[in-house]
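Quick one, probably user error.
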């Protein structure tokens, strides 16, 4: 064996010497701690509801643990499945997602005038819109990594190339967004549109591209206003939010503003250090329906753990965002970079939308808080997204962490 061949055999693939085949330990620790903390808080916030309806205080905790186990199993398998091979399946996954979204509108379970769920009997339900978020990210990362305009291979008529690329890119994504909006689920529609838009924004590094995107953003603002004010219940939520911002008081606290009023009462009673774990009063049926352990669990966290607990939770998501961007920066290829950016945008965006709504900074949206909100679809798809991000982190181009 010649010397060059011996050196090549020792090095293996040219990327191996630059790659550390271990996941980002901080992201892994974040996932484990957040999943455990979420299960504990779901148990705490759901005790009253579980006891009164099922005679078992651990009823909802048991199902959350089942979903964590199933999601963890799927995530473990995906963690060991090269993300580049997964991206090759992005187009059929996208088509399957569209099919499920059409199907749920046709035969899905209707709850509160919305068709978002397939019933699974005693196991609860599954929500295709939750999986649509990750499907869009996979599709976007794959499409953007291969498009000629994004890759800078287009020399003539860049204006037309931008328009053609944008229309082609948003064709399937737009179908997904419209189907989710029809359910109706404006919050998830906003998340999907924001992720897709931001990925298209960061995919090409050129001044002209940024100018195009700025113009496009200004053009679609009216569409957002039409969507936000297009239904009566959304107008009522916006009116409640607006009056809260202007007057500092919740209007119509017995009807439209009831949920916001109860959230603020809980947060106010928590103060700086909180009332203590297990001491929430709002979980005793004051928060409407099941929101104490779903959409409004952050309010229960603030009530029991106070301002300090809220800051720590926010800080954890900031840490996740930083580590996610680091994974994207060190990704071995553009596909991995965009996929990591998409997941890094998705989860913190969703978390901050939920937390902001719970403290009155934006109107209530119904967006779940990842790993902390009770629910099978959200839990499983979040764990899958984190597994893919950890998968990408294994192939980092540098050993620095």
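Nope, works fine. Designed sequence:
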């Amino acid at each position: 064996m010649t010397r060059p061949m011996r050196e090549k055999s020792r090095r293996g693939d040219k990327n191996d010497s630059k790659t550390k085949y271990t996941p980002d330990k901080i992201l892994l620790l974040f996932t484990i701690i957040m999943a455990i903390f979420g299960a504990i808080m779901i148990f705490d916030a759901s005790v009253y509801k579980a006891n009164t309806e099922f005679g078992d205080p651990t009823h909802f905790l048991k199902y959350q643990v089942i979903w964590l186990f199933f999601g963890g199993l799927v995530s473990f398998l995906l963690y060991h499945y090269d993300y580049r091979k997964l991206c090759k399946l992005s187009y059929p996954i996208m088509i399957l997602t569209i099919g499920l979204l059409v199907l749920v509108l046709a035969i899905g379970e209707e709850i509160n005038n919305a068709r978002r769920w397939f019933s699974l009997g005693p196991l609860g339900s599954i929500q295709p819109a939750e999986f649509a978020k990750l499907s869009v990210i996979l599709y976007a990362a794959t499409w953007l990594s291969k498009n000629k305009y994004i890759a800078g291979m287009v020399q003539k008529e860049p204006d037309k190339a931008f328009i053609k690329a944008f229309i082609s890119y948003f064709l399937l994504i737009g179908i997904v967004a419209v189907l989710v909006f029809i359910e109706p689920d404006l919050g998830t529609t906003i998340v999907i549109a924001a992720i897709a838009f931001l990925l298209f924004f960061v995919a090409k590094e050129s001044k002209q591209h940024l100018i195009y995107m700025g113009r496009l953003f200004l053009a679609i603002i009216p569409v957002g206003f039409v969507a936000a004010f297009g239904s009566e219940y959304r107008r009522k939520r916006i009116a409640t939010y607006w009056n809260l911002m202007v007057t500092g008081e919740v209007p119509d606290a017995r009807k439209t503003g009831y949920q916001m009023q109860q959230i603020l009462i809980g947060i106010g009673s928590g103060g700086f250090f909180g009332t203590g774990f297990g001491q929430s009063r709002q979980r005793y049926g004051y928060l409407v329906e099941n929101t104490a352990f779903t959409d409004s669990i952050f309010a229960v966290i603030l009530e029991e753990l106070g301002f300090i607990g809220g800051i720590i939770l926010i800080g954890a998501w900031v840490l996740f965002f930083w580590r996610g961007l680091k994974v994207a920066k060190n990704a071995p290829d553009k596909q991995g970079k965009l996929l990591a950016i998409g997941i890094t945008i998705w989860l913190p965006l969703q978390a901050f939308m939920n937390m902001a709504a719970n403290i009155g900074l934006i109107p209530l949206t119904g967006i779940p808080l990842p790993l902390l909100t009770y629910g099978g679809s959200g839990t499983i798809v979040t764990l899958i997204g984190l597994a893919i991000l950890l998968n990408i982190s294994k192939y980092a181009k540098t050993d620095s962490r």
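The two ends are 36 Å apart (CA to CA).
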